[in-house]
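hey m, so remember when u said the tokens were messed up on ur end? i reran from scratch. heres the input so u can diff it against urs
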Amino acid sequence: MLIAAALELAEEGGADAVSVREAARRAGVSPGAPFRHFPSRNDLMSAVAEEAQRRFRVSIAAAIAGTSADDPLARFRAYGMAYMRWAMTNPAHFEVISSGKYFSHDQSEALREDNDELIAMTEQLLMDALAQGQLRSSDLRVIKIAGRALVYGFARMKIDGHFPRWGVADAEADRMAEAIITLFVDGIAKPV
């Protein structure tokens, strides 16, 4: 209940609006009760980030499940689209899990492990695509970092309100996301 209340606070007022006391009030528990489980705001925000990350992973898993297991590049593309869509749809949750200012990523074993799994999944998809001859370059590290920068940067542009200055209307954000993912994947794919 407390984590759900904290997520609601983040959705309504951003991650800065989350406090242990306000989450307790929303959850209907005494102001001191949460401190037994979450001694500090940092501890509560770590738990909030873990729940947000779980939801993020569900979105990614669903997108990848809708693609052919025999096409790692299509799975990589689906992963990127799921990342951007989730971030744009859940900006407060994305802010919590992507920013280091609300809690210490290094102190959350669950988040560290989850992040390591996401990186490993990215690497595996790229290794599989290379093994199947789908990639024009064998520098998987560069592709991995470029892909991450692309989806993260696009999501941040949307969340931070940069699109209007770049001529992108909110209504076309999803189509633009698909277009840039397609451009990126086409750029790393070996011509058929």
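this time it looks ok to me. Residues 38 and 52 are 17 Å apart (CA to CA). if urs says something different then somethings off w ur setup not the seq
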